[in-house]
Amino acid sequence: MLCFLLLALLWTMVTAALSPSTHTAALQEDGTRPYIYSCRSLSMEDFTCWWRPIVGQDNVTYTLQYSIGDGAPRDCPDYLSGGIHSCFFNTKHTQVWQIYCMRVTAHTASGTLTSHRHCLDVADIVETDPPFNLSYVLLNDSRSGSCHSVLLSWMYPIAPQVHEGWITLLYELRYRNLAQPDSWKVKERLREPCVELFELQRGTYEFMVRCRSVNSKHWSSWSESIHISINSRTLSDHMLAFILVTSLGVLAFLIIGFGFIPRGKRIKAFLLPPIPKPRIRGLEPVLLKNGKMDEINHHFSSFHGYKSPQSSMEMWYPVSVDACPAAVANISPSPCKPEDGPGGQLTLQTSCSPYCHSGPAPSCAGATPPPDPAHPELTSVPGMDYSMILNSAPAQPASHDFYTCVTGVTASGQMHLVPCVPMLKNTPYAQGKEGKSGQLVALLEKQMEADPSEAATPLLPHSSD
Amino acid sequence: MEKLLGRAVQHAELIFRVSEESKMLFEEMLFSFGGVNPHAPSGTMCAPKTVSMSKSEIQQISDKWILHSVLILIQFWTDPLADLQASLENYENAPSALLDRSKWMSTKLTSLEQGVLVLVRQILGDGGLLLLDAPGETSDHNVPSDKLESVRRDYSVLYCFRKDAHKIETFLKLLKCRQIDKENCSFF
Q1: What is the predicted ipTM?
Q2: How close is the nearest chain A Cα to the Cα of B85, in Å?
Q3: Do A47 and A125 form a contact (C-beta atoms < 8 A)?
Q4: What are phi and psi of A123, to 5 degrees?
Q5: CB-side neighbour CA atoms (13 Å) of A224
Q6: Cβ–Cβ gap B33/A9 under 8 Å
Q7: Does B30 sit within 8 Å of A11, measured CB to CB?
Q8: A67-99 tens-digit pLDDT
Q9: pLDDT tens-place string over residues A362-420
């Protein structure tokens, strides 16, 4: 780092020694010495240098002397063609890629004053004329027929030199919408004397172009500008797209409205399938409500072991009064998990019906009569302090002899048990009114009248799961 | 042959553009460290070459002379560019862009030389190469004594090479124009 600083310092000294003229040029602006302020070449074939005269003195003559490389000094070949205080070097006197160094000397009455040395390479001082004859062609969009693209072209200066490759030009285009005069847009580094501009917004535009030689830093001045008006489009692409999307949306809405809503229920059922109610295939609840036993029997006859209630006699046996704990235990809430119904009432079933939602197939030992007549069961009727022993008669068939429906549970946790209605009506029970069995029957009848719909729903043991 | 000339012209254009960038990078490097804006070396720094003439004189010279001059220039600069690359690597903080460019220029100059040799054979025939003088001027291979000399020399190499690269590009363009469109291009 220190080494490099030293290097830079030495470099400063070197350059100061080598090129004393340019960096002290500012000192000459006071007019005490002539000062070469500009040299330009239009086509790299000839060039002109201009100097500022000294001020405050009359009858001053100027001479310019130059040297090429290490050659001998020569006088300026032409003081006139470039104007006053200039020196013009024509083609013969212009050698490209050589360093020219020159000085101007002012010869005054009091003596001579010499300018600082000015060195240049002709290839580096090229500044061409600006391009000219800008023209344009509006490009029609073949689809919509509107014109919002433009092809600009122009003529370039020094055409022969450019054509033969002696000079290569770079172009720069700038344009603005007159509605926003401060916002110029620029197309840089164009190598061809034409350019296409696409998708111009509506409005009036101003275009201008300039050029420079690739090896020079000096741009030409801007060309004369032209104005182009872009008209509004009949139907722009954006508008078309908007219309298309809107109509598709409306169409879709109509389809949905007229196609889907009528099938709303089906769709709803498809998307949110309802929880299937327990039902037995082929058996409608209406059938049972109507109480047409023939049809019911017909349906039930397909079940294994079903016997029509008319074909059997159910016998009621006298029961003991004591509430048997075992009986209570048997009537305990079934392992089928009860489910809270609305109003807090528990609806229990006595058999493993579809209403048992979870758990293993419970052994609802409830009030169903065992098929084995050797195991009598106790049943108790809530609200009454006795329980019944049910024992199916040996003569009777071993299945289905007695069906009890649980219609509800009291607040104290006791269950309402009622025999299922259609069977009861035809049994001798309905006729027996004396004694405890008569009380039982009366109670059952009362419950049936209070809530026939519940009693009318028979519950059968699961024949299949 | 149009394609070959086109490629030669493209090579020369690129070499010129890269040489310009290299010179600017070198100047920026010096400027950032010393606050110095190096000015153009005086005429003595760029070694005079054989081809330095006015436009009218150039228009008069033959295709053979153009090719000859181009080849001399290319062969002149092959070694100095290699030396420049070696020298730049000794700088402490030379930007990698500058190093890459100097390497690239050496490579491309060699391929341009190959292309020009092919052009010489095609335009001038097999005997064309025999007519060329042996490259008389070789670059100065003296090792610079100190750092200052090294910096001066490197800068003058970049400065002068940029100039000669532009020369090579222009000559090749002139040659291409003459070969393709004899009537409209410069007479001789």
Answers
A1: 0.84
A2: 18
A3: yes
A4: -65, -25
A5: 5
A6: no
A7: yes
A8: 988 889 999 999 999 899 999 999 889 988 888
A9: 444 444 444 444 444 455 545 555 445 544 444 444 444 456 777 777 777 777 777 76
- The C-alpha atoms of residue A143 and residue A336 are separated, in whole angstroms, by 76
* Mean pLDDT of chain A, nearest integer: 72
Phi/psi class of residue A62: alpha, beta or left (left: φ > 0; alpha: ψ in -120 to 50)?
Answer: beta
Buried residues in A135-167 as b, exposed as e (16+ CB within 10 A) = ebeeeeeeeeebebbbebbbebbbeebbebbbb
Distance of CA B112 to the CA centre of its chain: 10
CB contact under 8 A, A94 and B55: yes
Residues of chain A with Cβ-Cβ distance to B37 below 8 Å are 23
Burial A99-132 (b: 16+ CB within 10 A, else e): bbbbbbebeeeeeebebbbbbbbbbbbbbbebbe
Amino acid at the residue A320? S
Q: Which of A385, A393, A346 is nearest to A369 (CA)?
A: A393
Contact A82, A93 (CB under 8 A): no
Contact B34/A at CB under 8 A: yes
Q: Is the pTM of this model over 0.90?
A: no
- Put simply, the answer to whether B163 touches A123 (Cβ < 8 Å) is yes
Answer whether residue B73 shows pLDDT above 80.
yes
Summarize pLDDT for A444-465 with one digit per residue, the tens: 667 666 655 544 444 444 444 4
Q: Which residues of A fall below an 8 Å CB-CB distance to B? A: 1, 3-12, 14-15, 18-19, 22-23, 44-45, 67-70, 91-99, 101, 119, 121, 123, 163-166, 168, 214-215
Residue type, A290: N
Chain B closest-CA separation from residue A209 CA (Å): 23
